[in-house]
Amino acid sequence: MQEWWNTLTAVQQLLWGLAIPFTFLFLLQMLVALFIGGDEGESDAGNGEGSYSMFFTLRNAIVFFLGFSWGGLACLEAEISLVWGVLIGLFMVALNLLLLKGLATLNESGNLNLENTVGKEAIVSISIPGQFGGCGKVSISFQGRLEELEAMTEGEKMIRGQTVKVLRVSNNNQLIVKSLEISILKKD
Length: 188
Known about the structure:
alpha+beta, 18% strand, 5 helices
């Protein structure tokens, strides 16, 4: 090991000195993210309002030095400029930022927009009390999937299996529905 190290140039020693610990830190960071989780991805994303703090994070420093050191070693082996190593490091940071931005969108609350239910038909799955007397549930297909959501009505009680139409969404994210079935009036 000592002989190998002594045969390296000063630049190679520097790059290997960066590559080994930053590879270890990167792997450790990945294991922590996989098994322990945490919110560091959210804090690294910044506030998106022109702040440079999202670029200067510990995660990005680790990713940059990982890309720079291994890219630099590859550049030395291929006998090309170390500038490419710096560019590889910067590319890795850009890729890291894009991945974090993509992951942040997955962290939103179910990605369902209840406003997309307005005007759609649904089937009552749990009876809905009349005159806003409480909540029931309806099954409704929207945004490419079938969901069971809380619903209320200002009209008469609605029973299981009844077809309804969504009028609006309340402030509490409950659907306000009306019956689509016409009641037949008996004449005596």
